[in-house]
Amino acid sequence: MPLRVVSTKENADKLGFALENSKQIVAHLENYFGQSFPYPKLDQISAPIMGGAMENAGADLYQDKLLIVTDKDSTEDKREFGMVVAHELAHQWFGDLVTPAWWDDIWLNESFANWMGYRIGNEWRPDLNIGAGALEEGFAAMNTDALLAGRPIHQAITRNSQIDAAFDSITYGKGAHVVAMIAAFMGDTKFRDGVRGYMAAHRYGNATSAQFFAAMAQASGDPRILPALQSFTDQQGVPLLTFSGGDGRYTVTQSRYARLGTQAPAQTWGVPLCMRRGDERVCQLLDTVSGTVQVGGSGVFMPNAGGTGYYRFELPKADWDALIAGSASLTGGEGLALADSLRASFLAGRSSATQLADLARVMSANPDSFAADAATQGLIQLQAMDMFDDKANNAYRRFLGRILAPQLERQGFNPALDAYAGEDAEKSQARVQLVSQMASAVVDPGVIGKLNKAATDWLGGNPKALDPTWYRLAFGVWLGEQAKGRDGGVSAAKNLFERALATQDSNLRPALLGALSLPGKAPIANWILNEARDQRLRQTERMSLVLNVTNNRTTHDIGYNWARDHSDELLKGSAGIFVAARLPIVLGSMCSVEGADAMARDFGPKMAGLSGQLELDRSIERVRSCGVLKNARAKEVSKEISSLK
Predict the structure, then answer these.
(1) Phi, psi of 100 (to 5 degrees)
(2) I need a surface site. Which of 209, 317, 377, 437 has the fewest CB within 10 A?
């Protein structure tokens, strides 16, 4: 089969990785589907103005940064390459060879390809640990799916705006997680056989999700699979499984998860429930409100074995404490599941900030980079929600520093070019996460000093001083230091801006532009919003600059007011549908009841009838819910955090 990689001339010496590894990914996909590539040729094409990727038959399109990767690039860059390329190439079969009959089944097209992206990406490079990323994306989607404002995965499509809105975290994150859950429950071979049967029956034709479900039921030999799948695709919401009992014998009750101050309607799912104690794993289908479960073996009880279940769990305190205490040895998926459920329990008014701190203390030592990163996210979220008073904020930084600094010291940190070339991928990723948290959450002067010096030397003409892995963070730190000067960092921001527009490098350009909003300084924010314009700046880049200012907590109000006053400009033109989808998300970084009321007043009429209307409703609910939680628990949380040792 003829295979080419096509890009602009400046990337001519960087196409070898994409060419060789596209071959390998195609081979993995041919093996999974049990048939050869369905078209006579394949072109992998990158373009600087692409905002993502698109699966045209035999001619996939990618944003430069997604496809133009080298062996020396970061673990995160190579993970993204593997996942996205496998996703788009999976569409050559699932989407192009067999196409949805109508837009109401576009979810299946994207959900399956998203799951395949992570699965095949993991087969391609097991050392990159790509597979757990599907679960990370699914648990993130639960934060949206838990809101009352929402939609099911599968919904009737009667308007163009509904098509645009369907390409969201519910389709990609929740949909892929539901696919992973069913695949884990059925077993990999039976699920694959169901996919092959579906593809064979509808080759070069159209099909519906009902036909896909029927193929799964036939392959599994279990007719309960069909209503179980439909219970997740045809109704919104996240199941909450509440366990009572102990020592492997539990009563489990399902309900719809809701945050503090929110009353969710009564719902029931057909939950493929997989649990584990030690090496003993048990799966059963819970399709009633309540049931009993028994898990043999010994050791810690994990209610979501492998993390593949699309549900949250609530445990008796003794089981919570035991699971947290053993979290350093959980798999990546299980660590993600634990972190999500414990944080969700806090947001619902049940678990404590002390338990979140205990999880950070223990699971941050997990060797899996996904689990280790998830360990601290609960505490980081509390700080982002302004739940801490000044005393608690200082205690929080000291606490995280005591946990993370020794880990980074053992890893070592040298920001110079190729300092860690050829290093184990997971170790490299762990360092990236540690440095990021030490710089942004802990605000460690030693880490900040190293990043600032490396960026200063690089900008001064020494290209070996800074590896591309650290570009965005280091330039942001440098700009923050420059912002302490007379003009508040505006001249330094202009320097980075001009350097960005002078290059087409797919790593450097977005890193320089992305760094502009990191310091969160008002003079820089005002310059970005009102003056950072140039004919060389792409429309998508200008949009991102504005949204990044609004997404930064310290400049949120500046960005909010500017977006309110310039909403007509933002929502018009070819990028308008993308702004309509993303703007409500960044507006929702507030945490107050009053802020929610302001969003409804200022943006509700402007978003009416647009693809971003649902996303705005979600953000308003999210901001209001956060405000309710802060009003109810901030004093208690500050007291707990201030007493951490």
Answers:
(1) -55, 145
(2) 317
Helix H segments across 1-158? 16-33, 64-67, 75-93, 106-124, 132-145
Instruction: Decide if 244 contacts 316 (C-beta within 8 A).
Output: yes
The sign of the CA dihedral 41, 45, 51, 52 is positive
Helix axes 16-33, 188-201, angle to 10 degrees: 90
In what helix (H) or strand (E) does residue 469 lie, and over which residues does it extend? none
Looking at the whole model, is its pTM more than 0.90?
A: yes
Residue 56 β-bridge partners: 59
Structure tokens at 530: 């009102």
The C-alpha atoms of residue 351 and residue 162 are separated, in whole angstroms, by 37
- Pairing of β 271-277 and β 280-286: antiparallel
What is the dihedral angle through the alpha carbons of 37, 41, 45, 50, rounded to the nearest 10 degrees? -60
**Pick from 133, 25, 5: which is nearest to 80 by CA?**
133
d(CA 303, CA 306): 9
DSSP track, 522-569: HHHHHHHHHH---TTS-HHHHHHHHHHHHHSGGGHHHHHHHHHHTHHH
Q: Which residues, given as ranges, of the chain have pLDDT below 70? A: 573-577
Give the helix ranges, DSSP H, for 460-489.
471-482
DSSP assignment, residue 94?
Answer: B
Phi, psi at 419, each rounded to 5°: -60, -30
Q: How far is CA 160 from CA 207, 519, 611, 618, in A?
A: 21, 38, 8, 20
CB 341 within 8 A of CB 313: yes
Confidence at residue 576, expressed as pLDDT on a 0 to 100 scale: 63
Q: What is the pLDDT of residue 575?
A: 64
Give 402's contacts (C-beta < 8 A, 6+ positions apart): none
Closest listed residue to residue 374, CA positions, set 415, 407, 331, 315: 331
pLDDT value at residue 610: 82
**Residue from 373, 409, 379 nearest 397 by CA:** 379
Beta strands at 249-256 and 239-246: parallel, antiparallel or unpaired = antiparallel
Q: Are 473 and 31 in contact (CB under 8 A)?
A: no
Counting runs of H as helices and runs of E as strands, what totals does the chain give?
28, 13
Residue indicated by tokens 């990044």: 548
Instruction: Give the Cα separation of 272 and 186 in Å (integer).
Output: 9
The pair of structure tokens assigned to 44 is 């992998």
Q: Which long-range contacts (CB under 8 A, 24 or more apart) does 130-134 make?
A: 130/79, 130/82, 130/83, 131/333, 132/307, 132/331, 132/332, 132/333, 132/336, 132/368, 132/370, 133/79, 133/83, 133/370, 134/176, 134/177, 134/180
Strand partners, 301: 277
For residues 209 and 105, the answer to whether their CB atoms sit within 8 Å is yes
Q: Measure the CA–CA gap between 113 and 90, rounded to whole angstroms.
A: 6
Give the C-alpha separation, 301 to 295, whole Å.
8
